[in-house]
Amino acid sequence: MNRFAALLESLIFTPGRNAKLARLADYFATTPDPDRGWALAALTGKLSIPGLKSAAIRQLAESRSDPVLFGWSYDYVGDLAETVALIWPEHHEPGETVPTLTEVVEKAQAAGRSEAPKLLADWLDRLDATGRWALIKLFTGALRVGVSERLVKTALAAFGTVSVDEVEEVWPGLQPPYAQLFAWLGHGETRPEVDHLAAFRPLMLAQALDEADLAKLEAQDFRAEWKWDGIRVQLLGGRTQTRIFSRGGEEIGGSFPEIGLLAGLEAVLDGELLVRIDEQHGSFNELQQRLNRKTVSARQIRERPAFVRLYDILFDGDEDVRALPFDTRRARLEQWFARKVGNGPLAERFDLSPQLSFRAWTDLAEARRQAESVNAEGLMLKRGDSPYVAGRPKGLWFKWKRDPDTVDAVLLYAQRGHGRRSSFYSDFTFGCWRDNGSEGGPELVPVGKAYFGFTDTELQQLDKWVRNHTVERFGPVRRVEPALVLEIAYEGIRRSTRHKSGVAMRFPRISRIRWDKPAAEADRLESLAARIRD
Amino acid sequence: MASTIPRPETWLKPTPRGLYVEPGDFYIDPTGGADRAVITHGHADHARPGHGRVLATPGTLAIMRARYGENAGRQQQALDYGERLDINGVSLCFKPAGHVLGSAQAVLEWRGSRVVVSGDYKRRRDPTCPPFEVTPCDVFVTEATFGLPVFRHPDDAGEIARLLHSVRLFPERAHLVGVYALGKAQRVIMLLREAGWDGPIWLHGALVALCDLYRDQGVALGDLRHVGDTPKAELRGAIVLAPPSAIEDRWSRRLPDPVTCAASGWLRIKQRARQGGLELPLVISDHADWDELNATIDEVGAPEVWVTHGREEALMHAASQRGIRARALRLIGYEDEDPS
To answer: What does pTM read for this prediction?
Structure first.
């Protein structure tokens, strides 16, 4: 338990992806089975133990401490799990052992809900403060240590010196505590069997197109489609149900039962998940209303029904067609579609992403300018002879996004970064003008925050500018003179009740520093709000 | 006879300038310039410049001279641990406080009444200074920097082991450890030595003078090097100590992709460590933690405790639960938020 606790604690303080990978791989390499397997389950959200509500944890802590002191301590620390972990009295008995993660998981799984508090108290007595904190996090649900399932799998791959795609292929057939997986990765034993109709297949991704390269590419070698603004999914259509995986291999079928419950597809398909509004496909903002929900109401399905716009096929029945050329797969996809969907009841759940006809790149350049009007992010270019290859192979598929929208905003606050950016002001909050209701004059209201888009040299210039134009400091944050205009690029804008400005941008980043532009000429909030398309 | 023993509050008085010993006419750790000052230890909030006559341990006087030069006090008088001095009928004796080099508790006696002013103290072993000595008394004057039960410092060897583990895990990066220049820096160096790190330890310029002073006082700190203009590549895998403020300063850009660390008791609270943008917080403190504050109060056996600064409500509440009278002095001018 101590090693697991130390890992969790180090992950919450580690900002960099590579450093997180190093810490995870080190943990997998130096922790025995089955502890590391249970840790893997906890990190990927696959661990199932009876949960405890925070009220029960609090009650437990108050039974072991002075309630007045507990109250003052909670006020000071601000986080219940941490307060309980720190205030828990330490009277270690001689001969007492620290519980292993395996002991904790196995006993908790065997225990009923009513026994859980007593077990927890016993373990709290035997752990140190970091161990207690980790234990409470384990029992109260989400670990929230800033690692995705994909990152953990990448660390497993690094530990076992295999590719992350191999880990992805075997993953869906495995169960905690993953003895087979670690036997393969850690001891070179045979790779676990891949369950062909149950396994997520790592996706084939596109490179961003550098327009200068178009001259080197033959238009006739490529097929073009719209790049839809939904989420990329892989469907594993079985005989009785359909599993839906997001790009990173996380299963999201629970949020979309109208697709998850479909039976008899008998194929592995690649496409874009979208929602239908008034016979059209809805914007990403509409789709977002359906994401990350634990339960879905009939009304949500009625108002924003989901469908998948298909563009590729990986398995046709039991046959793996990934090695076939794209054009052949497209023909197989169209045959599958005619056979299974056609004009039948599945037609409201699937359509085919149309292929765009063109002769020359200039035709596509023109089409790309229309992307916004069809609710697309741009174009996809795929070589007609490309096999389906996991990862981001060079030269086969390209994405050609439309130019991003930009807004000119004024820098308001800067915050120091983390890790290698600790000494740099690298997180920038910016604002637009609006009229101040009570006084009538113009005022700046924050509209977003960006921490990338600039080069290292520009970061140094921004950092220097921030230090020289600071008006006020609050901890790691500096308020600056409203005098520097930043051109912010973004991928879409929506209404937000959480922000004072009432708008929120998707992927804002600094596209240019407008050293030349006076702050008074930055954009107004109304012009930004007018760009919202609901 | 008992009735002739004066009550402590009649001769030892909290004032805006610090604790004043009336019959002896001197202040303890005065916050402004005083004619006669008794100084418990060398941290800047307790040992201030510009006093007339200064009485302190030889270690504390050396620190004050190193920091303030001519401003360290017009007249300086050294009093070793355990020696006794009479000041207008008030007997004064220094006992080790275990806080930093030279740190002392002031044991004061007047007409049969004994008060211990402990200054800042800790109860853990510290290779750079002698351990705290328990002295029974009528009133114990204590700090309460970590006066909440959530502050319980872990074993310092375990914290140093975490640092060394991280050094092994990231051999290409430097480890930049923010430490207070007096006390914490030297203790962390000695703890690293005890853990078997006998290679060089690199220093920010602001730490060099006090490390030299500790060496002159007989603390063997081993191979220390000044970072200065050392090329970045040479600092891969290095352990570098610097004042906490240097982490966010442009100074730290001379280090290769530093893992930012700091050693302080405040870092027990994760949100504190996050605010500081630290990648590796080390919970190492030169102050007593909650359990040690309470144990010390019990061991000195004083019926009455005065709390100088810190989170005094909680400590007073806990003392009164055990039948000990507790009083907050609310002395101002002592840092609550120092890198303890």
So the answer is: 0.76
